[in-house]
Amino acid sequence: MADDGSGADISIPSFLMFKRDADRVKDELMQNRPVQIEMSWKLPSPDNRVEYDLWTVPKDLAAKEFLLKFKKLAMALGDRAYFTPHMYIYDGVRSNCKGPEGENVCYNLCTNDGRYCATDPDNDLEQGISGADVVRESLRRVCIWEKYGKEDGIGVQWWDYFAKFTELCDDPDFFAVEDCVKDAYKAAGIDGSLIDQCMSESGGLEADAPNDLLEEEINSQTSRGVVVIPTAFVNTAAIRGKLTPSEIFTAICAGFQDGTAPDICAQCSGCPDASTCVDVGYCSSGASSPQITKGVSSGTFAFSMFVVVGAFAGMGFMYYKKTQEQMRDQVRGILAEYMPLEDESGGAGHMGSPMDFARGGGTTSLIS
Known about the structure:
3-stranded antiparallel sheet
């Protein structure tokens, strides 16, 4: 917004409202009532299928956590949502990593003689994972999607490969090891030769020549204005920053044309833990399903209270009896210790010894 001269007291970020709306908020606050305001946008919803993209890199920790949890949600949406994973690649030519004579001047951060680059994940150019390793894995994942996910938009094998690679090969010692990648291929049911062929035919990573798939990724990220990762798009609406599965799932469900959303959206859209909701069939917070128990029944509560009160009453009575007996024993002991001896002959009208009196439980009168 342009400053009309009154913007000196406005800081960023700020939320501006029309006065008629703000007056209603002020009225509530004047009555000492709490006010909660939600800011939301309606997503484009052109038809009965939602298209969503995710831009990330293989060593993006925030996206890794998101993808591991989102897999079951993607499977639950099925073919009603079309997913496209994208890899963020730096244009080495624009970044001046390709020297004036065509040589790579960015050491091991780039492939194809400086054309395609990635940052060093561990900030150590001498050891660990290099930027070129990240570019190679990025191209591999693009090819897996081309062969196993592009047709249906679900890509079960892509999700399985990501999960298995994260489990087996995410460590710096195994990230670029081909045998580890083959193990991930096998676990995900992927034909490794098919992926190798895709990587080679697209232009490879060794020659000083363009790679068609990587060029497509760079052109797409430029046209979409992707500058932050991870970034998701749901029907062209961008969602940036730390993504959560529930947030993206709710956005996808909001992107369906009215009346066309799948049943899983009715069950779990808006649920704080959508992944668990998909597992159990309802939202555990009670937001979406009548099957949820929001509390205990009145009968159960009353019975529980009766049991608790009865237990405490029983323990109280037992404690009372025990203290009474202890008190009697103490009185008897005191009397036995301090009562004067009157007649040890045991004649009539006498108690004998103080212990006789004590054993009598204090039932004998002290007055002769």
